[in-house]
Amino acid sequence: MNINQEQLTIFKTVMETGSFSAAARQLGKVPSAVSMSIANLEIDVDMKLFERIGREPVPTAQASSLYEKTQQLLTEMQQWKQHAVALSQGLESSLNIVVVSELIHTQWTDYISLLAQEFPSLQINIFTAPQEDAQQMLGDGQAQLALMFEREELENYEQFVELKLESLVPVAAKDHTLAQFEQVSFEQILQSRQIVVASRDKTIKPELLFSKQYWRTDNHHSACSMIIQNLGWGVLPSQMFNENPQLIQQLKVLNFLDFTPKFEYFVDLVWNREKLMGSAAHFLINHIRNSRKNTN
């Protein structure tokens, strides 16, 4: 069976117009070419698709059954062609983006929607990971882009564009010992168990670690659950309180005596300049750069 796109297009047009001549006019062909194409299609599928009784062809039950599948197949073939063209012009076969777990509550999906509109055939894979693990994924090529906090020291391969400012706040359950004080001293923090979001690699020391005793988790949702259960205090994204107002009833933002209890960090879109990037990654980087230029 050797059925091509032109045969399917002609078949679909005949079904929709109701005649060979009307289909020919719509497709810019002579009626005999349309009739011959349908006849060849019938030979290929080994069944009669139209009853040629009277002035106009009448679709058989088999033709009606195949019509819906034809529409789907032509759409898929068009999408395949568009994707092939995009790939030939530099589009990635897939784009892996890792989002640092504390940033899940930010409006990062706006960027994904933009990519979906611009590159509808692109497969996008989103991962979440602690900061250190996200950086490792970027370094070894598991991810082409990373949405992460600013770093004190950049790896040699890192390049970034700044996105926005985000804040983290120290919190404890309302009945936690630390929550009973108007201000908490550094000594009190030091002696209280801390729940930290950290790399899965235990050899990497967690960032924002203040306490002598601490428990680790690889995402802030687990950290929040443990903090609510009074298992320790920790640092969570302030955006979590905006999305889940009930947290205000369960947690207290701690007021540190010795330093400002609000940690503000710039959020960056980071990529590995030593790795080859496709057109979708370049598009997003340039979009953010242009947005910054217009804002500034």
Automatic annotation (TrEMBL):
Keywords: DNA-binding, Transcription, Transcription regulation
Recorded superkingdom: Bacteria
Pfam family, one: HTH_1
Keyword Hydrolase: no
Matches recorded under InterPro entries: LysR_HTH_N (IPR000847), LysR_subst-bd (IPR005119), WH-like_DNA-bd_sf (IPR036388), WH_DNA-bd_sf (IPR036390)
Gene Ontology MF: a single term: DNA-binding transcription factor activity
HTH lysR-type domain residues: 1-60
Family listed: Belongs to the LysR transcriptional regulatory family.
Protein name in UniProt: LysR family transcriptional regulator
